[in-house]
């Protein structure tokens, strides 16, 4: 009995310690006291509950959940449901947390709060919105502002991911969190300018609220503003201001925020800006998307977009196997999604395997008819890239839901015209016009009065008529022109085209129709002639080509007579011109192009070409030696006599022979040198 009394006293003291530590927030010391109590009584329900709470407060969720699961007999779902669901939620076991909450016998306010968080993480936004509305309606405490913030976050998620137009909740945007969520909802609706203003307001409110706390530094404020700045950069990127967005993204990364989800989103957006450029930077940024815990911070669509960009980056960096692996994994996760198949097709095209790419796309279109239109457009693009325009037209015409669209009709007509297949182009027009006629007949069923055609229908008829007239198919254009004129009898342009077409087929009909043309009086244009003449262009023309009167006209006439009296100067004749000799009719042609040109004469004086080594004399050299002639005295020549002999002689060695003009020039130069020489030795 004494031992039991001592144990009870010790337990009472320990419980007092636990209570005091709990009030002070010292859960580590409280846990030690609880463990001592459990040594005294291991199945004490209150002690076990306190231990679980202490572990949760210390962040030991896994250990806390282990205690709950090992003491299921003592800790039933009735008294520990919230703690168990919260541990599962914090351990990212969201489905298990949902089952625990739904299995609880009593739905307390705490469980309802956690239920809303769980539904948000599961992206069941409609159920989540209903849960938070119920909480706000049925609870009044100091956490009302947090609940409204969560409610606005749900509305923003619906607008962003489900493209639901958000309803006005009437929330007063007094905090920066509410402003931020409102901006996200506006981004989802495409109202980017309004969203930017909301973000600027959120930034201002954030600075005001944090600056009131003296313990908060400027770095802490910038870290809190990082998510707001990230959303601002995203708006800039959507608006095409990529340089500004990139600069702001990099500023946020330099701050090194602790939110791995924010870093992953920013890194992904930078990769989308880089595209196939700056690949080295993209490969560094993609590492941020692989950080631990990212998958629990982002939505499924965000994670999917990141995986798509990883596959594209692998393609741009020529990592074909990695690209195929990633795209195949994405396709297995979302078999109906277009992007994985398009990435695989793009990779095949980079490998010059266009035929395989077309087969891959065709198989996907057959398996998923709902997405066949977009796939077939891609197939047509591949066919055009291969030069198979006709096959591309066949693929486009197989897309039934787009056959009648003006854009598709225009594309097909242009392509057929390029291939000079006018009949097929006209057939495209005819099918589109018939579709609109049938559509109008369905919508006006049972109506007997005249119904005007839609603007798109009339536009197609007019384009068809113009196309037929342009390519000489006036007979075929008559029915279209008559339909247009019937819709608008006052259209003079259409009537003129109709008369022109009938003039080749039925002239009498053309005459009858011509009576409907307005008279020349009714067609007179109301033009202010004075204003037209005083305009800038008319003034310039009048100055340049206007009529001349008075003295100016006489001066001009006088100058004209002077010009008439002037005679042309006679051309100069060559010095050797002989009027008795007929000029050479081919004198204007180059020498080589004249009929009498025989080319250079070769072989003349061939016998005079020196043979042997350079400087050696030939047999005929004695004839040139003046010292051997009879009249030459046997005395030594005077200085300069050799030059005189060379100048007097007409024979020049063939090795140095040049044209006559050059020889004459050389002679003159030699004479000048001779005159200028001093002579003597």
UniProtKB/TrEMBL annotation:
GO terms for cellular component: endoplasmic reticulum; signal recognition particle, endoplasmic reticulum targeting
Segments annotated as TPR repeats: 226-259
InterPro entries: Signal_recog_part_SRP72_RNA-bd (IPR013699), SRP72 (IPR026270), SRP72_TPR-like (IPR031545), TPR-like_helical_dom_sf (IPR011990), TPR_rpt (IPR019734)
One GO MF term: 7S RNA binding
SMART domains in the cross-refs: TPR (SM00028)
Single Gene Ontology BP annotation: SRP-dependent cotranslational protein targeting to membrane
Biased composition (Basic residues): 563-573, 665-681
Region: Disordered, residue numbers: 538-681
Residue runs in coiled coils: none
Subcellular location: Cytoplasm; Endoplasmic reticulum
Broad class of the protein's primary localization: cytoplasm
Keywords from the named record: Cytoplasm, Endoplasmic reticulum, Repeat, Ribonucleoprotein, Signal recognition particle, TPR repeat
Ranges of biased composition (kind: Basic and acidic residues): 575-596
Domain Signal recognition particle SRP72 subunit RNA-binding: 543-599
Top-level taxonomic group: Eukaryota
Record SUPFAM superfamilies: TPR-like
Bias (Low complexity) ranges: 627-649
Similarity annotation: Belongs to the SRP72 family.
Protein name per its UniProtKB record: Signal recognition particle subunit SRP72
Organism: Smithornis capensis
